[in-house]
Give the backbone structure.
Amino acid sequence: MTAGKVMLVWVALLWILEGVDTATNHALDTYGITPRRLTELRDIVPAAFLHGSWDHVASNTVPLLILGFIAALAGIRRFAAVVATVIVVSGLGVWLTAPPNTVTLGASGVVFGLFGYLLVRGFVDRRPLDIVVGVIVAAVYGSILWGVLPTDSGISWQGHLFGLIGGVLAAFFFRRPREITATPRTAPPYIP
């Protein structure tokens, strides 16, 4: 199954990158986002693939695998477009709003984005099965919404919030066209 392979490769890449980062005394952390520095805009994409520790990558692994797999089932091209949108919106939000002199990195913005995308996709596409999927995702992962609140200074609530917004926007940007069914017209009865 393609969706499963994509997600396994993605998560493996995250773990490999954390291994390289650890082996190089966290040299890759420089690719995290430091807010409001123009040169840091180029780090928006790599920051989504890097983590600050093994615990950090571990905490993102399971939700990324599950939510990513579900989202990728609708097609890899659409999934790639959704993820790209989430990464850009989340990264720009962090760049604009994070506290000065901080470095933000991690896939949690993508996790929140996929959550938001799956939550509203069914309503946007008007597909009953996707609505059911959204309800199940909300029931299982709904508690992550607390992560968009500024409750812990060590966690980028900005990345979470803007990731969620990016996922909702992606549901609208990449909605499936509705199928239009033609209803046969009946001629009015002939009255002589």
Summary: The two ends are 64 Å apart (CA to CA). The chain has one domain: 2-173. Residues 2-173 form a domain with the Rhomboid-like fold fold (CATH 1.20.1540.10).
